[in-house]
Specification:
Layout: E1 2-5, H1 16-30, E2 35-38, H2 48-56, E3 59-66, E4 72-80, E5 83-87, H3 89-92, H4 110-121, E6 126-130, H5 141-146, E7 150-152, E8 171-173, E9 185-189, H6 202-206, H7 214-235, H8 247-259, E10 262-264, H9 266-273, H10 276-280, E11 285-293, H11 302-311, E12 317-324, E13 338-341, H12 349-354, H13 356-375
Parallel strand pairs: 1-2, 1-11, 5-6, 6-9, 9-10, 11-12, 12-13
Antiparallel strand pairs: 3-4, 4-5, 7-8
Helix pairs in contact: 1-13
């Protein structure tokens, strides 16, 4: 029997690799002679870089960049051959900003641009940028500045950082853009579908969690509308309505407009870059998982991407999860054949997270004992 285990991380408790190894122990208890392969994955969120680089046998690069508040922070990204995988949260993430200093009028994506520039300087020609967990709402202008774009005000001066500064932009100048940028294939990993502006846009939906009050939200949205107007007028690009352009405070928009990026579902890009289809071919069972699975999981979450790939070859898929939520039946129409919770008795969340490794092993053992019973 050949079993492939490809699970997302269980946030706050186990990385993708650790969770997969715990599942593998449970599978081996029931099928000790099975050929079990653990494939770490991520869908563009936290842990994506580690999962991909482990799979590809790549290396991590560490460097000092401009953080979201304009100070210097330590950030990292992964490389394998000529591919780079970057998490914008490493340089421009909300966790880098103390709660009492969160202000998307001031925070910048400049450090994310520095990571991209460094990857280009080291010869990477395919760059995957995961854009979850941002502290920013600058439409990607800071990122673009790091790549050589200039945003100048009415006095022909370069604007400062943050969403506040966007309102002063009058001209966008590409004369000093990194010339190697045009030869790079840049993929923007996100499962967010919000447009740039308006009621469902970056500022109104995500601004408050980044520290914006009602007045800030209005101002941020006005400034993103202004940036969009200039991009349409001066660059002849109409991108603000593209689903996902509002991701990460408009970084999705900025990466498309200023770096030639393409928005793609995170899990699809990750599975493609690690060659998952070839690895899963010939398996008898695929086991996947995530911290919580519900009806919303069908919208781009990692287990659904794994299931979709497995179904190309008619392979059954078991999902092992921390919590089974509302409308779970929806996943059965998207390649998941069965869902098993790791919770095996009444327990608080803190206990479930503390014991998650053993619970993952136990859940897979319980599920595969039923499989073995059916085989008999």
């Amino acid at each position: 029997m050949r079993i492939v285990i490809a699970t997302d991380s269980f946030k706050g408790s186990n990385s993708s690799l650790t969770a997969g190894n715990c599942m593998a122990r449970g599978a081996a208890k029931v099928f000790p002679d099975a050929d079990i392969t653990v494939i770490p994955i991520g869908d563009g969120g936290e842990g994506t870089v580690d999962a991909v680089i482990q799979q590809l046998g790549g290396t991590m690069k560490h460097l000092t960049v401009t953080g979201p508040l304009g100070d210097q922070v330590e950030a990292s990204y992964g490389t394998a051959d000529a591919t780079a995988v970057i998490e914008m949260a490493s340089a421009s993430g909300l966790t880098l900003v103390p709660e009492d200093r969160r202000n998307p009028l001031a925070t910048t994506t400049y450090g994310t641009g520095e990571l991209i520039a460094d990857a280009i300087a080291h010869g990477c020609i395919r760059i995957l940028v995961a854009i979850g967990g941002s502290a920013t709402n600058d439409g990607g202008a800071g990122m673009a500045q790091a790549l050589g774009w200039s945003f100048r005000d009415a006095e022909d001066k370069e604007i400062g950082f943050g969403g506040r500064a966007l309102g002063g932009v009058r001209t966008i100048d590409a004369s000093r853009v990194n010339p190697r940028l045009s030869s790079v294939s840049l993929e923007i990993l996100s499962d967010v579908t919000n447009p740039l502006c308006g009621p469902n846009g970056a500022s109104r939906v995500y601004g408050p969690q980044k520290g914006a009050d009602d007045r800030m939200v209005e101002l941020l949205d006005e400034h993103l509308f202004h940036l969009d107007y200039l991009v349409k007028e001066q660059l002849r690009l109409d991108l603000s309505g593209v689903p996902g352009s509002g991701a990460a405070g408009g970084l999705g928009f900025g990466l498309m407009a200023f770096a030639g990026g393409t928005l793609v579902p995170g899990i699809e890009a990750v599975l493609d870059v690690i060659g998952f289809s070839e690895q899963v071919k010939g398996a008898d069972l695929v086991i996947t998982g995530e911290g919580k699975m519900d009806g919303q999981s069908v919208q781009g979450k990692a287990p659904i991407g794994v299931a979709k790939a497995a179904k190309q070859f008619g392979i059954p898929v078991l999902a092992v999860v921390g919590d089974i939520g509302k409308d779970i039946q929806a996943v059965y129409d998207h390649g998941i054949d069965s869902v098993m919770s790791i919770v095996n008795r009444p327990m608080p969340l803190s206990t479930a997270m503390a014991e998650s490794g053993d619970l993952l092993t136990d859940a897979v053992e319980r599920a595969l004992r039923m499989v073995r019973m059916g085989m008999r």
